[in-house]
Batch of 3 targets.
Target 1
Amino acid sequence: MNHNIVSLPTTLELNIDLTDEQFFILCQNNPELRFELTATGQLIIMPPTGSETSDRNAELTYQLRSWSRQTQLGKSFDSSGGFKLPNGAERSPDASWVKMERWNALTQAEKERFAPLCPDFVVELVSPSDSIPKTQAKMREYIDNGAKLGWLINRLQQQVEIYRSHQEVQILQNPLTLSGEDILPGFVLDLAEIW
């Protein structure tokens, strides 16, 4: 018997017309994959991350969640949490946080789906299969849609790009910690376990 092997790109992008309901069902029916939808309707299918990236992302989410539980200032989310941005894109940052007032303003139905808002704070942790230019564009999209602070963490380069509304991107080389500034008061990410 002859077996053919199909090789697909690590991230697949398709132009497809999906309603919000169809996109939500697609995500629910395929929990082993991560999906995003661009503002122009392009469906992005991302494979699960490797174990190394997953471990680092769990540490990142853990630190953010710990701070969020202590302060009760908002809600933190892991990489499986989706958000419908004001521009129509449906994105899932690797970690994110929303102020409590904004979260509480949502209906229960909105909370159970992809929340129709952009998080106040977002983090993308670059994995080996990620395109740096596309991830940078995604960070700019978050800021353009209302995020106040964003971190793009590139472990390979040990570099962090800090995105803030109405400011130029700041690049830090091999920082030991990152401050949540006035967006996440008192939050300091220890990068020792991330690098």
Target 2
Amino acid sequence: MGGPVDDVETEEITATEAFAILGNETRMEILRALWQSDEPSSFAELRSDVAPDDKGNFNYHLGKLTDHFVKKTDDGYDLRFAGEQIVRAVLTGTITSAPSVRPAETDERCAYCDAPVEMGYTKDVISVRCTDCGGVIGGDFPDGTYMHYQFPPSGLADRTPEAAIDAAHVLYDSKIAPMMKGICPECASGIDISYDICDDHQVGDSKICPNCDSRYEVWALYECEHCRYRRKSVMWFAALNHPAVVSFYYDHGLDEKIPIRKLTSDNAQFVRDVTGTVTDTDPFRFRVTIPIEDDTLVVSMDEELDVLSARRTSDSR
């Protein structure tokens, strides 16, 4: 593997300068107009769309955006990636909206006990809890919690509670998948992996260990080296896309239309009894056990959560 990319030329502005540039209604309207356009816009088209009566200041405002947020081409003005990111942040509602949804029962069913679940939303976080069993995580979270993470306000728009929960599952997968491959989904930098391990994991009827307030013994903590974007995942999630695991599920009738990593009542039999444990700490080695009926797949993983081996206990070999 080679070294870092050579000859990188960087044109930077400070965060203070960036916010000062964006803190103007006309400039934000310029970005929005370019976002809505299917092709680069001329100066005259932009001024007509954004500020038709502004004869003197429009050129000044456009000039402030040009080069960092807007690029000037032979065909006209267009958004740069930085400009696109600003508009997306506004459209998702993350920096402009703060909706709140009181927890209420939905038609969604718990994957662990098939009881109804509640969904609530506050401070950019969607939270889903089972109304009967212990869910996945306890402690400071409401009893039965099995989903609790950041979700853009726009994800609630025109969706039923059940559809919002499904969208949150999909979004979670879309974020955690590249992190499992060592890439930050927010800034494309590298990822550090650490582990939260319960040294005395015991679960009773609630399935929540009183020593770690969790259903699972080992959690993987992914954090970007650059922007510090974080995600927490059950350690064995990283094994579920390995060919040996996919084949094992397929042999036992998992419909390809039912995603393995989205834990629902439809696929609960395939994932709710999966366990992961530590077999060594220097370096880390993990064992994942996937039982289905009378068959079991045992997967060994290294400290980077790459699969080292996969063996069916029912194999005669």
Target 3
Amino acid sequence: MLFNSYEFLIFLPIVFLLYWFVFKPLKWQNLFIVIASYTFYGWWDWRFLLLMAFTTFCSFLSGILLEKNENNRQKQKIISATNIILNLLILCIFKYCNFFGENLAALCRCLGWGIDWITLDILLPVGISFYTFQALSYTIDVYQHKIKPTHDIIAFFAFISFFPQLVAGPIERATNLLPQFLQGRQFSYEKATDGMRQILWGLFKKMVVADNCAAAVNTIFADYQSLEGSQLLLGAIFFTFQIYGDFSGYSDIAIGTARLFGINLMRNFNYPYFSRDIAEFWRRWHISLTTWFRDYIYFPLGGSRCSKLKTIRNTLIIFLVSGFWHGANWTFIVWGAFHGLLFLPLLIGGRNRRYTTDIVAKGRIFPSIKEFCQMLTTFILAMIGWVIFRAETIQQAWEYLFRMVTTFDFSLPAHGKDPLIYIGILLVIEWIQREKQFGLQIEKKGIFQYRSIRWGIYYIVFITTFLLAGKQAEFIYFQF
């Protein structure tokens, strides 16, 4: 079920009303969340439900067993390792089986061994990487004594399957989300209206920006070998904003929807295209995934509290794993390596933490020339990475980038004008609101203290979203 579908438009208010006015006790609310979430997820394919339920039950059971063997650290290691390996094995079978098999067969052929790989026709479950990592975080946190295991199986199933963030994040931690299902929730009008505004902004980014860019991107990438460099540059820019509008739009809708049910999800995007270097970009892009890798892989490897050489190794591992997490294709691995190489000069020079808390041009309308050049450079580097990410093969990525810089003619295709306008609107609003959580978070001060002005803006965005919506497309990150 897509957030931008008529089915969800019917589904959400029904679930909302039943949740607050019928299933009032905590246990019943949690059970209803599980039923609603499994309905939402099973809308694609009911068979996916069995796999998610198995992953959830194994992770729940691992917590119970870890608690029972609290005084036996060796058994705890075996229990946690077993559940982690089991979850990763399931993920690898469905997501990476053909990739490993095909590359092994290719390697064998290079060595003169006649081995053929039969591609398995395996349907990739929607969002399997997201809920698997969420389940893994619970087992690891219990093992590390960051959270006590829960005996409430309904609350745990609600934690793993919570439908707003189930298929494309944010990837929540057990330490943040699970306790919210173990305590009573009260309806908050302010929280709900704030959630509705964030949903509206997410729909604008998805339906107007991402979906309109997608049509142009598909056309340009399909015919890149016959197009001139300026049109290819436009295609790269469009995909850069397509993936941002698509993914951050999903996150906004997920976070806003969760707030309707009294649940707070972590922020997943923080205006990444206003970053001044690649290190800041990765602190602002897909925050739930980057912090997951930081806490569960980078820090256990030693993080930065070791020799410079090992720190470089740990950093490269994180970027390569991040690329591989996105899919079973060498383009994703090269994309991760590309960002890792961009990050290394900052790390080696001790400049990777220059921009950790401050906001660019804070308190000013315009950035300085230096800040503008920094943002433009970071944007261009990220855009080059997105071309690699979008390409089907490494060769296609290279050919696309090569033609983009060698056949430039400044022509603008007819289908490229409207998306540029929508991108411009997005950038202006987000620049103005860069100190807020999302684009439509308007404070009640100045002219905005008047309700008619605030609601007028919301109605304009609402009407614009549905009038200018592009052709409906699935969210890009569903495939991951």
